[in-house]
Amino acid sequence: MLSWASADLARISLWYFGLAIASAVFPWVNAELLVLSLPAFAKTKMALVLLVLVFTAGQMTGKCVLYWTGRKGNSALPPRFASHLSKWHDRLAARPGKAVLFVFVSSLTGLPPFYVMTLVAGALRMNFPVYVVAGTAGRLVKFAAVVMLPHLAVSLFRPGA
């Protein structure tokens, strides 16, 4: 039987999973601000770790929707864009490690925007499992850092630290 605390954590996790999907699909929903609110709902460090993992999973679920949108939508591109896409596909196919690095750096830093990179990865038909692993790794590191930075800043400025 679940305790009240674990039932609350399950409900909070479900909400954050949904919010993460929304932030992945709708760029005006700021993922970083949502992640900054996680410590307010986590009563323990393990609960915080769980919420970061849940948020990352929700983000990547939403990004997978965008990836497949880009993959299916590239057939409707005007010929001019299709030729550019074909050139980029050939370049990245010759160096698949570069594509993985682009996705990882984009998911970690937001430069170029991960939203755009996700659509491009789909349109270029990047290997889906490779995209998911690279994107998840970057998002997980980013969200963990966003959660930890305020704690590190407070500890630096704490008297007697």
Describe the protein:
27% of the residues are buried. It is built from eight helices and no strands. The chain is mostly helical. The chain has one domain (4-157). The longest helix has 30 residues, at 128-157. 81% of the residues lie in helices and 0% in strands. The chain has helices at residues 4-25, 31-36, 38-41, 45-73, 79-94, 96-109, 114-123, 128-157.
Shape: elongated
Question: Which structural class is indicated by helix and strand composition?
Answer: mainly alpha
Task: Determine the mean pLDDT.
Answer: 86
Could you tell me the number of beta strands? 0
Q: What is the count of distinct domains?
A: 1
Using only C-alpha atoms, the radius of gyration works out to 18 Å
| Total helical segments | 8
Provide the descriptors you would attach to this structure in a database record.
0% strand; 161 residues; 81% helix; mainly alpha; 8 helices
Short description:
With 161 residues, the protein is mainly alpha-helical. It has helices at residues 4-25, 31-36, 38-41, 45-73, 79-94, 96-109, 114-123, 128-157. The N and C termini lie far apart (42 Å).
Give the topology, please.
Layout: H1 4-25, H2 31-36, H3 38-41, H4 45-73, H5 79-94, H6 96-109, H7 114-123, H8 128-157
Helix pairs in contact: 1-4, 4-7, 4-8, 6-7, 6-8
